[in-house]
Each structure stands twice: as structure tokens, then as C-alpha cells.
Amino acid sequence: MRDVRGGRWWASWAGGVLGVVVAVGPVVRYWLTNPGDQRLVDLDVYRSGGMSLLQGLPVYDMITPAPQLLPFTYPPIAAMLAVPLALMSWPVVQWVWTLGVFLCLGVTVWYSFREALARARPRWAMPLLLALLVAAASLLMPIRDQVRFGQVDILLVMLCVADCLARRPWWPRGLLIGLATAVKLTPGVFLIYLLITGFGRDGLPGQRRAFYMAAFTAALLTILPFLVMPHDAAGFWFSALLDSERLGANNATTNQSIRGMLLRLYLPGWLTAVLWLALVAVVAWYGFRHARRALLAGDRLTAVALTGLMAVLISPVAWIHHLAWVVVVLAALAGPWDGTVRPWRVWTVAGAWIYYVVPIPWWGVSLRAAEIPVLSPVMGRVVQDAFGLGALVLLWLLARRTRRPAGDHGLAAPPGATASDPGHSPVDHISPGNR
Questions:
Q1: How far apart, in whole angstroms, are the C-alpha atoms of residue 302 and residue 392?
Q2: Is the pLDDT of residue 422 over 90?
Q3: For residue 9, which of 103, 128, 102 has the smallest C-alpha distance?
Q4: CA 303 to chain centre
Q5: Is 63 helix (H, G, I), strand (E, B) or coil?
Q6: Cα–Cα distance for residue pair 78/139, rounded to 1 Å
Q7: Tens digit of each residue's pLDDT (9 = 90 or more) over 113-163
Q8: pLDDT computed for residue 216 by the predictor
Q9: At what angle do helices 300-313 and 269-296 cross, to 10 degrees?
Q10: φ, ψ for residue 71 (rounded to 5)?
């Protein structure tokens, strides 16, 4: 009987991997066979940064070949970590990176939907359910853009999610958040999350320790490049970082942050700046307040999802692929996993999934190009902002969940764990940072 069950388990894994390959195959084939000068252009930026470092050339003066002409825009440690990419040929690195994108997506889905996967019956069907979730997530436009551009965002999402949601991590908690923050500054919102949940009258000691580790790691990886590449490090922190236009046109449709949406309005520059600061302050207060409340209520997943949305909304520039956090948000909306199917929740998750599968912001571009009086300039802008406005709605939906009484979120210990298990004590259960 055990051999039969083991055979089913391995067959389920094999079927799951095959299912994912079939599901993502068209996306991968499309973007890895399109014209070379349009293929994985951000990966080319990473690799070129590593090559510049190896060749002793100024990293922040580097420009990728025409027609892209893209500069290196990431912190100096990212160029150091990109050196292995420079040691591989371009055809090889494309496939290695694309495989890494889906591995990171798989890990993110595993942590985000772990409670649902733990309830899969029969047990051998769990790999098939995981494969189905990965395949569905791969259709989201922010995830498709990971493959299209060869982006690093899903790796950063995976690092933050694993650091916050792993039950017994083998690494010091906070280490992965510090690494993600050093590589690309937007995950720094998780330093704020650890700070507001670790300090104060009812702060959690585990969160406090995780904050110290994250801050130490981010600081160390920021200082290290000054010893290895001092000129480039100074050039980034005192020059390149201050030039937001290096990232591309900030008012482009792909910028779905609050600032991006405001830049597309017909407002004076000074008024845009004032409104942005005011709205960021309000949204940050609202989002982090509810993230803290969610964690204290035991709903770690919702706390992480809310914080991830902050990385998009309050950033000066947040391209559509930054919304890879939608994977975690969908998991939070779908819970709690208490065995009860609630139709309204199913419809909410399905609607949000479809919303981010369809390229709605680009419909706004087409609407504006139609030049219909009143409709084009007004509704065109609204539709262009669809993903950013959707992120605000998702923020509100998740915040509503934090108003429930504590314990109403269905967070379950893993199979076999008991109340006396030191890895799942009541305090430990609500703190992702105290082990």
C-alpha cells in the first residue's frame, strides 16, 4: 500500500510539473523567440552591469545596445551579484533566468497557499493543486512581464514572503528581507513592517530581532560595494539614485504607483508633488496600520500582502511587473482555509485574477488615441490607471479583513503540530519573526 501511495505521489509531482510546462510554454516560447533586441531587456541590463564590473568599466555609465539604450539603475550590490550572469553566454542566461522566474513563482505560491495545499485530499493530489495554482499565477500580466523583460521582482517577492511566512527558517529571520532591500530598494517597506510590529507597547520580540537582522544585512550589503567599487557606489547613491528619469518616462502607462497615476493627470508639477506626498502619507498610514493589526490578529499572510501592496503604491515608480505581489494578495483574499467555501470570496478572487490577467491599462492608451471628446482624455486616463486603482481596492479589501476578531483567520499549524509544539505556541503563531 505504501508503494502504491508513493507511486501516486511521484506521479502527481510529474503530472504537476508537466502541467506547468504546458501552461507556461506559450508565454516562454513567445518572449524567448521574439526579436533579439526586444528579448529580456532588463536581464540584459543586469548582465551588462556585471560585465561592466568585470571589465573595470563605470557601471552607471553603461548603456545597453540600441534600440533599448537602457542604463543600469540598481544599487551597486546588484551589479556584484550579477557577475555570474556575465560569465554565461546570452542564450544560456536567458533560459537559466526564465527557469529561475518560475522556480521563484512556485516557491511564492507554495508559501502563499500553504494552508490550502495542506488540506488537499487525497494527499497525493497536493502537487497537482500546486501546479494548477502556479499555472494560474503565471497568466497574470505582472508575472508574464517577468518573462517578457527578464525581471527580478518575483525573486524579491519570494525572498520577502519566505522570510515572513517560513515556520522554522534555517536562516536568521530578516536576512532575506535585508538582501532584497539591498538589491532593489522597494522591498524596504518590509523594514517598516518589521519596525512597526516589533516595537511599541505590544511589539513582538521576534519582529524586533528580524528588524535588526534585516537592517544590518541591508546596511552591510550597501557598505560593501564602497570597498569593492567605490566610484560606482558613490555615483549611484549621490547621483544616479536622484535621477528618477533614468528608470524611464515616469508618466508612462506602465508606472502604476500613486505618483505615476498623478503624473498622468493634467496638473501643474508642484501640485502633483504636493498631492503625491499627501496621498502617500495617507495610504502608508492606512496600509501599515492594518498590516500591523493583521499580524497581531494572527493573520500573517494578510499582513504580508498589505505590505507588498505598499511596495507598489508608495514607490515613486512602480512598473506593472512590480505588481507580482498580486499572487500573495490573491492567496490572502482566498483565505481563511477553514474548509468552508464562501461563494462571495470565490467570485472576489476570480474577479481579481481576471482583472490582472487582462492588459486593461493598455486599453486606456487605445481609448485616448481614439480622440473622442471628453471620453478619451478622462476615461482614457482612468483606464490607464486600472492596475494602480485596482491595487488601492485590493488594499481596502484586505484591510477590511483585519477588522475581524482575533483568531478568525483560519491560520492552522502544519499537520502533526499541537498546541504544545514549541514551534507553534500562541505567541509564535502570530509572530513570523520570533523563531
A1: 15
A2: no
A3: 128
A4: 14
A5: strand
A6: 28
A7: 998 888 877 777 788 889 999 999 999 999 999 999 999 999 999 999 999
A8: 97
A9: 170
A10: -90, 165
**What average pLDDT does this structure show over 30-57?**
90
pTM of the model: 0.89
Tell me the C-alpha distance between 198 and 285, whole Å.
Answer: 17
* CB contact at 8 A, 318 and 310: no
Q: What is the DSSP string of 241-310?
A: GG-GGGGS-TTSTT--SHHHHHHTSS--HHHHHHHHHHHHHHHHHHHHHHHHHHHHTT-HHHHHHHHHHH
- Which CA distances in Å does 371 have to 230, 367, 368, 384? 51, 7, 6, 15
The DSSP annotation for 221-233 comes to HHHHHHHHSHHHH
* Entry field: residues in the chain: 435
Instruction: Return the minimum-mean-pLDDT range out of 52-61, 86-95, 425-434.
Output: 425-434
Grid cell 521574439 — which residue? 34
Q: Residue 407's pLDDT is what?
A: 41
Cell of 188: 524596504
DSSP string, 346-382: HHHHHHHHHHHHS-HHHHHHHHHHTT-TTHHHHHHHH
Q: Is 199 helix (H, G, I), strand (E, B) or coil?
A: coil
How far is the CA of 246 from the CAs of 59, 62, 115, 153, 160, in angstroms? 13, 12, 41, 18, 26
CB burial of 62-75 (b: ≥16 within 10 Å; e: otherwise) equals bebeeeeebbbbbb
- Most confident segment among 8-12, 237-241, 295-299, 334-338: 295-299
